Amino acid sequence: MGILQRLSLCYGALAIIHWATNYGDKAFRYVGALFTLAFIIIYLSFMVTFENSECPRDKNLIAYCNFGSYWDRKMFTKAHIFEGGDNDPEGLFTTLSSFVNGYAGYFFCLVMFDNKNQIKKILTIWTIASLMCGLIAIPLLEMMPLNKKIWSMSYTFLTIAISGISLTIITLFFDVIGK
User: Fold this and answer.
1) Residue ranges for the chain with pLDDT beneath 50
2) pLDDT for position 30
3) Is-contact 45 66, C-beta < 8 A?
């Protein structure tokens, strides 16, 4: 798979969630959060507990031995994996964790939508959410490495934190201080 296919799968899933939650209606937002939580649990369950007959269990999170790589090799064969390698950073299974990044962006948009003309409240919620994601990344580092090639959950939450803080700072400079 490639980055464009991954983006389209994430966008498609987010569009379905947006539609299923009555276009972001506050009363139904828990549905999207539950899907995201389910994706996190599924990803962690398979990536951490997977045992491959070709690799020892303590190596189950390296590029060749992880579940995402194994799944992609079985689904697409090695000939259709990025650069004919053993691991596709934009593989089908690791799209679950990249969806979490997409949902975080959706969450940031909903915060902005809900709090129009309340820039201080928006920046506060964005900062808190970003810091929480950064704090979630810390214990996940004990479970799995910070690794883009397997799109690890620690990588996912750290990139959400960095993106959220960056968005907050840019908004602060251009929409608050710059006016």
Assistant:
1) none
2) 86
3) no
* Amino acid sitting at position 171: T
| Predicted local confidence at residue 136, as pLDDT | 95
CA distances to 25, 52, 60, 141, 147 from 56, rounded to whole Å, are 47, 7, 7, 20, 19
Domain count along the chain = 1
C-alpha–C-alpha distance, residues 64 and 21, integer Å: 38
What is the C-alpha R_g of the chain?
A: 18
pTM over 0.85: yes
Q: Contact at 8 Å (CB) between 161 and 104?
A: no
Considering only the C-alpha atoms of the chain, give the largest distance between any 2 of them, rounded to a whole number of Å: 61
Query: Distance between CA 137 and CA 97 in Å, rounded?
Result: 13
Helix (H, G, I), strand (E, B), or coil: what is residue 24?
A: coil
Q: Which residues contact 123 (CB under 8 A, 6 or more apart)?
A: 168, 171, 172, 176
pLDDT of residue 177: 86
pLDDT digits (tens, 9 = 90+) for 24-51: 788 888 888 999 999 999 999 988 888 7
Q: Whole domain around residue 116: which residue ranges? A: 3-177
Cα separation, 112 vs 157, in Å, equals: 20
140 neighbors 154 (Cβ within 8 angstroms): yes
